[in-house]
Each structure stands twice: as structure tokens, then as C-alpha cells.
Write a structure and sequence with these properties.
Layout (H helix, E strand, L loop, with lengths): L21 E3 L32 E3 L14 E15 L2 E12 L5 E7 L5 E9 L5 E9 L4 E13 L5 E10 L2 E12 L5 E10 L2 E12 L6 E9 L5 E12 L16 E10 L2 E12 L5 E9 L2 E12 L5 E10 L2 E14 L5 E10 L4 E18 L8 E5 L6 E7 L5 E7 L4 E7 L5 E5 L6 E9 L2 E9 L1
Antiparallel strand pairs: 1-2, 3-4, 3-22, 4-5, 5-6, 6-7, 7-8, 8-9, 9-10, 10-11, 11-12, 12-13, 13-14, 14-15, 15-16, 16-17, 17-18, 18-19, 19-20, 20-21, 21-22, 23-24, 24-27, 25-26, 25-28, 28-29
């Protein structure tokens, strides 16, 4: 059950390339660097807000990078430029040049990809909410005279008083419009641990229950020890489908947002499927960890009442937390046979920043590694991040639900804010600029049709989103 993901949502397009790997550009503590982990539970989608680290990370082979959320002020070095090359025999062919922009927390806000002759090709931009979670990711193509939107995502997050996400509504750009895509609802136990995840698909603007996960814990501080997935049958009754038990974590932090909880290193687990009214073994996983978070993970399948080796992965990181080797092997005729792999060689400058990465992919025909991709980073910018705290862009709305008027009270940093209200389909129904001197607004919603709306307050790169129910 290798694809038992807690979130069955397609990966974002810029992460689907096989060239993807996380690179720590600035110096960092490898122990806190987010890495690919031995975990078949983790989502194949990301909102790009990994755990705090002291260096940003870029994704080789895509426009942009996995975005670092800074929990406190930190000094980091980010490249403003990179040149991308593809292997061409014994030489490297210059394909594109990227330029980067960052916010005050060192998070990437835009990447522009240019042809070697300097002409524009593509652009990707991001915005974040007050907790550092991504709220918008836009993909644009240069049409010869202007940027043209051709894809993207929007995420509206709702938080509880503890800063935990209780709901996420996803929209994607299709047919020249923003369309509802997916909805997640999260609940927590008394220890503020994630307890349930409920997923909804959309059908003509109506949310349809797709499935739910229930997590169980052995204590108040550790990670979940089991995860059970249920889905509705033809009669709409929730029934067992799959589960993972005996989960043992290599390390675990409950501070991760719900959708990132499983993007942490797991030592072992057993997965089962529900068949004929009982749980039946399906897959077993065991990992051995080494230096810098490196590991060897082995998957076994349940066959004829015993566990049989099926698949093995070897993942190695350097002391800076950068991926240097990833290999997959299949068990064939009693022996491990490599069927996939790639590795990286890095060069660092005198300041300890990553100056060059060279990727090699494994050729199953020649059974050797061959040059594939090369990135040269330059023009580093030193950023002393001072991220916007959650309390600095907080909102309070009352009464909610409302039949006519609401009062919005808010606290914002010293900059102008933009107030925007969208309907459930993502259409903007109200927009207003709010000067810094004013921190309370009365809004008349009496002419709004009854239903659910999203109120978004944006100041700089910070965004606060609140649901409004119009009666």
C-alpha cells in the first residue's frame, strides 16, 4: 500500500518533475532541514511551508523551491540568480536563467525564467498568510508582450485559537477562472494533536464527502501510532478501507500543520486493508537511519502468511541537509536490483552558500550514472528575516453568522491593507483598501445572497482569512 496518502491530491505541477530535490542554499542546521523521508503516508502535495530552518531551499529542475518558513529572526543567504544547464554529450547546454525575489522572512515570492538571450519565458509567484502558510501560487507564461496566467492554486486556511488549521479550501485555475477543487477539515484532541482529517471533493459547487482519517496516539507528546481511513459506500455510510498501525517515528514534532504532519521521518509501520469484514496485512516498512538523517528503508509485502521483501530505497544527505543520493531497488529472484536512482554533487562558495549542483540520473540500460542537469547559483542576498507574527495581522468579525452587517476589527503592521470578500466559487464580490490608521470597519452584507463567504485581509506578504456565514 505504498500510495496510502493522507491527502489524495495531485502534486503541484512544478514539483512533479523527476529532477526535483531540495537544496539548502544557505548554511543550515541539517537536523532541522526538511528532507525527503521514508514515509508512504505523506502527502504527494505540499503547501511549501516546511519546518523552520536557517537556510532556504530550492528545487532543482523547476522554477522554484520548497519554501522555508522562519519561526524567528534569522540571517540567511538567498541567490538572486541561477543558470540552468542540461547535459549535451560531454558538455553543458545553457537552457534558462532564473531570477528570484524574497519577502522579509526570506521566503521566495517570485521566480522569473528567461531564455539565455534574456527574453521572458515563465513566471511563478507566491503569497503567504500570517502563519507563513502558502495562500496563492500563480503560474504565468510570457505571451510576447505581457504575463498571461495559465495555472495556479489558491488556499484559504481557517485557524483555531491555538493557531492550528481547522479547514483548508483549495481552488485551481482552469478554463480562465478559479474553480473549487478540494476541501480539508481538521479536528484536534485536548492535547492539540491532530485527531481527524476529513476530505471533500466538489461537484457543481457542492462539497461531497470523499473520506476521512482518524489518528490515535500513545501519549500526549509523541506522533500518531495508527491512522485509519474510511470512505462512504454506495449508501453514503462510512466504512473501513485502509489503515496503518504500529507507527514508530524516528523523530516527530506536533508543530507541523495538519497536511505536513506525516512529512517527518518514520522508522516503521504496518499497513492493512479491510477485506471481508477484517483487517488484512498488506505492507510493512522498516528504516535504518544514519548520519544527517540518511536512511535505508525496506518495504515488504504480505504473501501467503509471511512478509516478503519487495522494494528498498536508499537516501543519503550531506552535513548541510542536502540530498546527495536516492536509489530504488526491487527484489528480483532473491537479489536487490537497482531500477532507479539519482545523485548530486555540490560546490559551496567561501561563505558556505551552495554555488553549484550537478545532478546525475541512473541509466538502467548502461547501469551507470550519467550527467543530467546543472545549476549555478550567484548574486547572493543576505536577509535578516523579521517575519510577521500571527498577532500582527489578526481579525475579529462579529456577529458571525450575520443577516446584514458585520464589524471587522483587525490589527495590522504599519502598511496599507487590502480587504477582499469572495464567494464559495472564488469570485471577488467586495474589495476595499484599508488605511493603516483605521483598524475597525463596518460592512453591510444585506444585499449578499445567503451562503458562505471568505474574507481575506492582506498586508504586504501576510494574509489573514476568515469565513463569514451570511444568513
Amino acid at each position: 500500500m505504498r500510495n496510502f496518502y493522507p491527502f489524495r491530491v495531485l502534486s503541484r505541477t512544478f514539483l512533479t518533475t523527476v529532477l526535483t530535490s531540495f537544496l539548502v542554499i544557505g548554511s543550515t542546521d541539517a537536523a532541522t532541514a526538511q528532507q525527503h523521508r521514508p514515509i508512504s503516508l505523506k502527502s504527494n502535495r505540499s503547501l511549501h511551508s516546511p519546518a523552520p530552518a536557517t537556510g532556504n531551499k530550492l528545487v532543482a529542475g523547476s522554477l522554484a523551491g520548497s519554501l522555508t518558513k522562519q519561526a524567528a529572526a534569522a540571517t540567511i543567504a538567498q541567490p538572486l540568480t541561477s543558470q540552468h544547464y542540461a547535459a549535451d554529450g560531454a558538455t553543458w547546454r545553457h537552457e534558462t536563467t532564473n531570477t528570484y525575489a524574497y519577502d522579509e522572512a526570506g521566503r521566495i515570492t517570485s521566480v522569473v525564467e528567461k531564455h539565455p538571450d534574456g527574453s521572458n519565458l515563465r513566471r511563478e509567484t507566491w503569497t503567504y498568510d500570517q502563519y507563513g502558510n502558502e495562500t496563492e501560487n500563480l503560474h504565468e507564461q510570457w505571451n510576447g508582450s505581457a504575463w498571461e496566467l495559465n495555472g495556479g492554486w489558491k488556499s484559504d486556511h481557517t485557524y483555531n485559537a491555538n493557531g492550528k488549521i481547522t479547514e483548508t479550501i483549495e481552488r485551481n485555475w482552469r478554463n480562465n477562472a478559479w474553480e473549487l477543487y478540494y476541501r480539508y477539515v481538521y479536528s484536534y484532541n485536548g492535547n492539540n494533536q491532530l485527531l481527524t482529517i476529513t476530505e471533500y471533493d466538489v461537484d457543481a459547487s457542492e462539497w461531497l464527502l470523499e473520506g476521512s482519517y482518524t489518528l490515535a496516539y500513545a501519549n500526549a507528546t509523541g506522533g500518531p501510532t495508527s491512522l485509519t481511513y474510511m470512505e462512504p459506500n454506495r449508501d453514503g455510510v462510512m466504512v473501513n478501507s485502509e489503515r496503518v498501525i504500529d507507527i514508530a517515528w524516528h523523530s516527530f514534532s506536533n508543530s507541523r500543520p495538519g497536511y505536513e504532519l506525516f512529512d517527518q521521518p518514520i522508522k516503521s509501520y504496518v499497513s492493512q486493508v479491510w477485506e471481508d469484514g477484517q483487517w488484512v496485512n498488506d505492507e510493512k516498512y522498516d528504516a535504518t537511519f544514519g548520519a544527517n538523517g540518511s536512511y535505508v528503508g525496506t518495504y515488504q509485502e504480505w504473501e501467503n502468511g509471511t512478509w516478503v521483501n519487495d522494494y528498498r530505497e536508499t537516501v543519503t544527505y550531506d552535513e548541510r541537509g542536502n540530498l546527495v543520493l536516492s536509489e530504488d531497488e526491487r527484489r528480483i529472484a532473491g537479489a536487490w536490483v537497482k531500477d532507479y536512482g539519482f545523485k548530486y554533487t555540490y560546490t559551496y562558495n567561501t561563505a558556505g552558500n551552495l554555488a553549484e549542483s550537478v545532478q546525475q540520473n541512473y541509466n538502467t540500460g548502461t547501469r551507470a550514472y550519467e550527467n543530467t542537469y546543472r545549476i549555478v547559483y550567484s548574486n547572493f542576498q543576505v536577509i535578516t528575516s523579521a517575519p510577521l507574527a500571527a498577532a500582527e495581522l489578526s481579525t475579529e468579525i462579529y456577529p458571525n453568522p450575520t443577516a446584514d452587517k458585520i464589524t471587522l476589527s483587525y490589527k495590522q503592521p504599519g502598511s496599507q491593507a487590502t480587504l477582499q470578500i469572495t464567494d464559495i466559487a472564488g469570485r471577488i464580490v467586495f474589495e476595499k483598501q484599508l488605511p493603516y490608521a483605521v483598524q475597525q470597519q463596518e460592512l453591510d452584507l444585506s444585499n449578499f445572497p445567503a451562503g458562505l463567504y471568505m474574507l481575506r485581509l492582506r498586508a504586504g506578504n501576510a494574509v489573514s482569512t476568515t469565513k463569514i456565514m451570511k444568513l
